[in-house]
Amino acid sequence: MFFHLSCLLLCPLQLALAHSGGHQEPLSSTGTADWATNHMAEEHHISNFDPGAFFQLHDFDYSLTWTPDEIRRTYGLDDESTKGVSDEKKAEVVKVTMERFDLDGDGVISRQEWLEGWRSGSRLEDFGVSGTHYTAIGVNYFGSVAGINQPFDAVGSRASWR
Q1: How many CB atoms lie within 10 A of CB 103?
Q2: Residue 8 pLDDT exceeds 60
Q3: Are 40 and 26 within 8 A, CB to CB?
Q4: Is 3 exposed, middle or buried (0-12, 13-18, 19+ CB in 10 A)?
Q5: Interatomic CA distance for residues 109 and 104, integer angstroms
Q6: How many beta carbons lie within 10 A of that of residue 124, not counting itself?
Q7: Cα(148)–Cα(46) distance, rounded to whole angstroms?
Q8: How far apart are CA 90 and CA 82, in angstroms?
Q9: CB contact set of 27 (below 8 Å; sequence gap of 6+)
Q10: pLDDT (tens digit, 9 = 90+) per residue, 27-44?
Q11: What is the mean pLDDT of residues 36-63?
Q12: Would you call 96 helix, strand, or coil by DSSP?
């Protein structure tokens, strides 16, 4: 009887300890991590990613480029929570990001430019303004209501992301 009672009391404790062990990094990195790392932890609950995955996740139209609108959306600048942020500050976020990663100056950041910039040490700056890229109706960052269930085209196919 004592054995069965101790198992009932200790099994939940063992499960809790097994699932809270040191094998996973904490999701929130404060102070030392770059903006992208903090964003992935706080917005997406992802603690381990590579720069290619970050780019793909925020290439909202699957065009293999980031437009100024996608930069605004990545930073959540059109979210209700950032309505108090000035248009000038929002323009600065886009301008600095484009200057840092749009290496050929064509007005978009290609996946290749993003990866080259990342490899050379460029990172997304923390401008102190960050909303969410979820919409008011709860559609996630993968696309619009109409776009979620549409198949990828040849350019946006998963094979072309590699």
Answers
A1: 16
A2: no
A3: no
A4: exposed
A5: 9
A6: 24
A7: 21
A8: 9
A9: 41, 42, 45, 46, 47
A10: 334 455 788 888 888 888
A11: 89
A12: helix
pLDDT number for residue 160: 40
Tokens representing 83 are: 């309505």
156 token code pair: 């946006």
Angle at 46 between CA 44 and CA 47, to 5 degrees: 140
- Residue 54 amino acid letter: F
Residue 62 pLDDT level (bands cut at 50, 70, 90):
very high
Within 7-131, strands assigned E span 65-66, 109-110
Mind listing the pLDDT tens digit for each residue in 132-155?
765 443 344 444 433 443 334 444
The span from the first CA to the last CA of the chain, in angstroms, equals 58
Which residue matches tokens 């064509």? 106
